[in-house]
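Usage

Read records sequentially. Each one opens with the input sequence:
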Amino acid sequence: MKKIEVVVIIFVIVGTSTIFQSNNIFAKDFSMHEALSKGLIKLNLSSTGGHSENCMAVKVQNLGSNALNLYLEPGYILDNLDDHQQDIIVVKSLKIKLNPHQKIDTVAYGFCCQSHNASPKTGQKFRLGKMADTLMVKLCHYINNHKVNAGAAQSAVWTISNKHHLATIGQPKDTSMIELIKICNRNNNVALPWFYVGYSNIPGLVFSNIPCKVVLNFEYNKKSNKQLTISIYDQSGHKIKTLLANSFASPGLKSFHYDFDIVNWKKGVYTLKVKELNQEPISKTFEF
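and closes with the structure output:
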């Protein structure tokens, strides 16, 4: 009698295991949008507070008896139900495996894509929107596949969604920024920026639009031992800052790096002039 009971118990366990494995083996792949439109899942999207990185809470439930493999791809826009707050664009792939009737709470990684709107409040409701345009999707896939710091990623998104200047993405001395800037450069004939513009952080604003610093990186091939002067001029030709005064450095290729505040400067185009005694001066422009 005891042997029969053991066999029955083993049969039940093995049978249950087989069914469970079968559900996982035959799990179907669906985009989040497709699964939602087919009524396969219940989905709740809300803000975790803030506008960047792991800023979207995702609660999803499998409503059916079949296992599901869900994915939310980079470049998908999550629509904020409040038009005065930011929408969020997903920049890192989100994959979820759901057993029959299973519920899962997770987060989506993304950035806001309207720099003029307010940051989403904690608990603010969202809905699935649509895929962004080709250029934005390309950018999101690059961020998904490479190590990009959050500040540069957010600034890159804004160069496409809000037409921010390429120089806002990252300091040009950082070579890891080059490919990111190239993607955001719509016109291949436009040279990549040799400068970086930083903006003030103001509590309550996602983007202040108030320039606070400029970083310049450039090279100059010094011809002689004679004095070298580097200055900045405004659009009226007035000298407003001297970066290097009467340097007598030896000849050769020189690399220069300057990082300075521009809090009280007017927005516009500025000219950097490098003057070496008895040599033709060179000029480079930057703007903010």
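Summary fields computed downstream for this record:
- The radius of gyration is 28 Å.
- Residues 1-23 have pLDDT under 50 and may be disordered.
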